[in-house]
Amino acid sequence: MGSLAVLWRWLSSWFARAVPVPAQAACDPAADEALRQSIHDVTHEQLGIAHWSCHTHF
């Protein structure tokens, strides 16, 4: 169990260094909402493309 905790701490510290959070975006609710909306729009676009691309096979 101890080695699993060490691995988890190492992995989380590596990820924190590999993907840093910008200081301004971390505390700006408007930026968070814009990012959320952007992800939402892209996800819907990808779902639509996947849905309609299957119709070309019939």
Write the layout of secondary structure elements.
Layout: H1 2-18, H2 23-26, H3 29-55
Question: Describe it for me?
Answer:
The protein is mainly α and 58 residues long. It has a domain at 23-58. It has 3 helices and no strands. It has helices at 2-18, 23-26, 29-55. The termini are far apart. The model has no long low-confidence stretch (mean pLDDT 77).
Quick structural overview:
By secondary structure, the chain is an all-alpha fold. It has three helices and no strands.
Throw out a few tags for this protein.
3 helices; mainly alpha; 58 residues
Q: Order of helices and strands, N to C? A: HHH
The tally of helices reads 3
Largest beta-sheet details: none
Shape category: flat
Q: What is the CA-CA span between the terminal residues?
A: 53 Å
Overall average residue pLDDT: 77
Unreliable residue runs: none
Number of strands: 0
Helix content: over 70%
Radius of gyration: 19 Å
The percent range for strand residues is under 5%
What is the structural class? Answer: mainly alpha
